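Troubleshooting log. The previous structure file for this entry was overwritten by mistake, so regenerating from the original sequence record. Sequence copied from the archived sheet and checked twice against the printout by T.R.
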Amino acid sequence: MRAKAFSPCHITGFFGVHINKNPMRSGSSGAGIVLDRGVTTEVKVEEAEKRKIEIHANSELCDCPVTESVIKAMICSSPLRIEVNHSIDMPMMQGFGVSGAGALGTAFALNKALELGFSDMELGRFAHIAEVENLTGLGDVIAELSGGFVVRKKAGAPGTGEVLKFEEEAEVYCFVVDSAISTKDILSDGDAQKKINSAAEKSLKILLKSPSLENFLKVSREFSDTSGLISHGVKDAVDILEAGGVNSSMCMLGGSIFSFSEEAEDLIDLPYIKANIKYEGAKLI
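Regenerated output below.
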């Protein structure tokens, strides 16, 4: 038994942290863009005497706790041998929502392989809860299930959180300019959360008055400063682009930046990844 799914990656421009004892109500408010690059996940299932889970990322054995959490939640104690292969075409731990995309793709593929009969929303909930419990993300899954330019008005899992989806077209230029940031460290820091949430509340109000990509980029840039999350390396790169007349901002949470201008590639002497905004969310392939 086998199945394959694709889940797009997601860049968060700004976010507010909302932690609840109920993981369905935990999540983030804020806004982001869903990309046509992401994670393709193939799941193979065989009957076995006892449960065994093996996960690979780009052909290498992977310690992927979010993916493993999804599998355990979906199959409970069923004695199955499950092999998961993630093909990832965005950098990990750099603010592209890779763990959420991998978890969501796994849920879709496993559901098909075993004919479990869960709805897309239920599959999104499995992935969201796994992210929350592992402190690897709060708002990526609900966006990756939706697709498009997504504003998260209310935090929570799919079906609990509230999103607005806008279908705006744009090319997205992504640069990794600094070391990775641990999402878990940020989500575990109470003082950092207060500063983040104060900045996020203002950002969301401004964006909702004019929900365009241009305004999203501007608001995200301001948030990266006022939240205190921007690193020196990221700030230097953003400043270089700004001096050249190109707007950009930090990918939350990572040492990466994104811009909607192709001129960015001429101003920063680093490899870049080009993507487009994807209107469609996770799906079987």
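Residues 171-275 form a domain with the Alpha-Beta Plaits fold (CATH 3.30.70.890). Archived copy saved in two places this time.
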